[in-house]
Amino acid sequence: MKAYHDLLQRILDQGGDKSDRTGTGTRSVFGHQMRFDLSKGFPLLTTKKVHFRSIAIELLWFLNGDTHVKYLKDNKVSIWDEWATAEQTAKFNRPEGELGPVYGHQWRNFGATKNADGTYQNNGFDQISWLIQEIKNNPDSRRLIVSGWNPNEATQVALPPCHTLFQFFVQDGKLSCQLYQRSADVFLGVPFNIASYALLTHMVAQVCGLKVGDFVWAGGDTHLYSNHFEQAKLQLSRSTLPLCELKLNPNVTNIFDFSFDDIDILNYQSHPAIKAAVAV
């Protein structure tokens, strides 16, 4: 995970200090790329413990098209709780726990008609189903893209999608993925995003009969919050450990049939977790 450490160091050394929406303050760089060869191990950070279960459950939630935190809470995942409170959802006239047109909506029901009560009809475009069929039938396409960013709906959620667009690429029987992230909380969010899209790439590759290639991460406003500087320095002081291995149930052939029991990581070694406050 040297690429991630290099990013932390770049921000600390070269970043510019900026104000931000949360009032916390950030140190930011604009434009950064990291590349991970997924055949060499699963890119789950080793210099601090990362809660893989939360990553996997969240991804399954996205793929299901869900926008309510009930599934997450039922599975004891709390990473969206700060944006699902009654105070936050009341701003958009939604019941507590309903997040509106966030990732699951955009991935599975893009452009759907909004009802008077704030819910959506199931008449949008299912980008994930289309993507899988396109990879199988037209793997050389340069349009293997899923967009999480809908400008018409970006102001209708407390937290519009940060990882906004991803593209797949097939070559020599291998599937690669590149993610563009408009806003990147490098200490807390980016480790989750790297692992989540690496997991998604493995899952898509399996159901399409492909091996995995690279995962490429590209950041726009790439930042450390000002109250994460010391945590980042602590992480940089730690040595990296060997990467773990991802194991998927080989019997799953439909992207929507994966459950958490079909996903496992083997031999995950890490330094202890490092706590840091979430900026809301």
Automatic annotation (TrEMBL):
Compartments (UniProt record): Cytoplasm
Positions of the Thymidylate synthase/dCMP hydroxymethylase domain: 2-280
Binding site for dUMP: 21, 142-143, 182-185, 193, 223-225
Protein's GO biological process: dTMP biosynthetic process; dTTP biosynthetic process; methylation
Sequence positions that bind (6R)-5,10-methylene-5,6,7,8-tetrahydrofolate: 51, 185, 279
Metabolic or biological pathway, per its Swiss-Prot or TrEMBL entry: Pyrimidine metabolism; dTTP biosynthesis
Active-site residues from the entry: 162
EC number(s) per entry: 2.1.1.45
Catalytic activity: dUMP + (6R)-5,10-methylene-5,6,7,8-tetrahydrofolate = 7,8-dihydrofolate + dTMP
Entry keywords, A to Z: Cytoplasm, Methyltransferase, Nucleotide biosynthesis, Transferase
Coiled coil location: none
Assigned GO CC terms: cytosol
Alphabetized GO MF terms: thymidylate synthase activity
Function, in words: Catalyzes the reductive methylation of 2'-deoxyuridine-5'-monophosphate (dUMP) to 2'-deoxythymidine-5'-monophosphate (dTMP) while utilizing 5,10-methylenetetrahydrofolate (mTHF) as the methyl donor and reductant in the reaction, yielding dihydrofolate (DHF) as a by-product. This enzymatic reaction provides an intracellular de novo source of dTMP, an essential precursor for DNA biosynthesis.
Family matches, as NCBIfam families: PRK01827.1-3, PRK01827.1-5, thym_sym
Subunit structure, interactors included: Homodimer.
Family from the record: Belongs to the thymidylate synthase family. Bacterial-type ThyA subfamily.
Protein name according to UniProt: Thymidylate synthase
Source organism phylogeny: Bacteria, Pseudomonadati, Pseudomonadota, Gammaproteobacteria, Moraxellales
